[in-house]
Amino acid sequence: MGQDEDLYPEPVIGFLELLWGRGWLSPGGPDELARLLQGEDLKGKHVLDIGCGAGGIDCLLVTDYGAAKITGIDVEAPVLETARARAIEAGVSDSIDLVKVEPGPLPFADASFDVVFSKDSIVHIPDKHALASEVFRVLKPGGVFVASDWLISHDGEPSPDMKAYIESEALDFGMASPSTYEAALKAAGFTDVRLTNRNPWYREQARRELAELKGPLHARAVGEMGQELVEHNIQTWTLMIKALDLGEHCPHHVRGRKP
């Protein structure tokens, strides 16, 4: 990422946890996690989580999916501090190692992990080919890469509506198209590459989230995080829904296997 200031300071973490659940900085909760991991057996596995965020997912990978060890990495101290607290709350801190890293190559030896996982974090990494090569390198033979991420439906310049949404997010989004993702994974050596478009699901989910922000959660969110942050996010969600309705903002599930 390489930004001078944290993109996810404590008020933003609190806002996203209020919207998406304690320990969650991405949407869908346990149900979407189950869909993402469908067919994968994590029991006894060592999992690398790229962009572990606030730690809620890593806790579930241990308690609900039986992972033996999670190595969660992120570039920002505030989210890692939150993740450590969530792991202690869940009683799984002995199974979760949380590491602050710098942008660039993964700081791990070849063939270190059974599974490389990520949920809605790789959007912050613009070079998908370099990422895919690094993921392939640190996976053991037979290991799997399973991720969800926020994609743009095409290469080239975003539409005005998509550009307005991205600008409102004010994050270092490096969105890529499904074709770019597929090419990157195959070039790295992955087989059984699969991409699943989750736009139809999130198009409806985002509407429910916006309704919550405008309704039941509004007073609490304003009281805890301030009017300015909440109103800005209402604007961002409104713009995001336009981009989702175009099909241009298209979250995907992504999988590949290392032979």
Keywords summarizing the entry:
259 residues, alpha/beta, Rossmann fold, 7-stranded mixed sheet, globular
Structure description:
This protein has a single domain, classed as Rossmann fold (3-Layer(aba) Sandwich), CATH 3.40.50.150. The protein contains 10 helices and 7 strands. It has helices spanning 10-20, 29-36, 56-63, 77-90, 128-138, 160-169, 178-188, 199-214, 218-225, 227-246; strands at 46-50, 69-74, 96-100, 113-119, 139-149, 191-197, 252-257. The protein has a 7-stranded mixed β-sheet with strand order 3-2-1-4-5-7-6, sandwiched between helices. α8 runs antiparallel to α10 and α9 packs across α10.
Distance between the termini: 30 Å
Taking all Cα atoms into account, the compactness measure Rg is 18 Å
Q: Which overall shape is indicated by the principal axes computed on the Cα atoms? A: globular
What's the main sheet like?
Answer: 7 strands, mixed
Number of domains in the coordinates?
A: 1
Name of the CATH homologous superfamily: Vaccinia Virus protein VP39
Question: SSE order in H/E notation?
Answer: HHEHEHEEHEHHEHHHE
| CATH topology-level name | Rossmann fold
Number of strands: 7
Task: Estimate percent helicity.
Answer: 40-55%
SSE-based structural type: alpha/beta
| Side-by-side strand order of the widest sheet | 3-2-1-4-5-7-6
